Automatic annotation (TrEMBL):
Signal peptide: none annotated. The chain crosses the membrane at residues 6-24, 88-109. GO terms for cellular component: mitochondrial inner membrane. It comes from the Eukaryota. InterPro entries: Cbp4. This is Uncharacterized protein. It is a single-pass membrane protein. Its main location: mitochondrion. The keyword Cell division does not apply. It is found in: Mitochondrion inner membrane. Essential for the assembly of ubiquinol-cytochrome c reductase. It has a direct effect on the correct occurrence of the Rieske protein, core 4, core 5 and apocytochrome b. Belongs to the CBP4 family. The lineage of its organism: Eukaryota, Fungi, Dikarya, Basidiomycota, Agaricomycotina. It comes from Lentinula detonsa. Keywords: Chaperone, Membrane, Mitochondrion, Mitochondrion inner membrane, Transmembrane, Transmembrane helix.
Length: 130
């Protein structure tokens, strides 16, 4: 086994990392400082990109909320009326997945001696042999 100076190596690595971090903190401006130094035309582009990103995030939050409502409603047997085309797409995709599970279980039951009972009322699908 070699006699490598692990302690000095670790100390040098920590020192260089700390010096690099302090140099970065001293020289790199914060986001607010950088925004304040920008030219007005670049600020407009940044504001437009920020507004576009916020709009995308809001749309994504709406989709997540609609999917959670769909999941909750399918557990309790509620009927949903879609308010937009993407909500209709989510509902149809959910129904197709339920239909494909039902068809799969039907084909399994045709080829097996026992009958499978599926309970969709719980959050987890339970398959019992009866």
């Amino acid at each position: 086994m070699s006699h490598f100076p692990w302690l000095r190596f670790a100390g040098a690595a920590i020192t260089f990392t700390g010096l690099g971090y302090m140099l970065m903190k001293a020289t790199v401006p914060t986001e607010e400082e950088l925004y304040n130094r920008m030219a007005p035309d670049i600020r407009k582009k940044v504001d437009a990109a920020r507004a576009l990103r916020l709009a995308r995030e809001a749309e994504m939050k709406q989709q997540v909320a609609a999917q959670s409502i769909l999941t909750q409603s399918s557990q309790f047997g509620l009927i949903l009326t879609p308010k937009s085309s993407w909500q209709l797409t989510v509902i149809l995709a959910h129904l197709v997945s339920l239909f494909s599970i039902t068809v799969l279980l039907y084909h399994l039951a045709q080829n097996c001696i026992f009958v499978l009972v599926v309970d969709f009322s719980a959050s987890n699908m339970v398959i019992r042999q009866s």
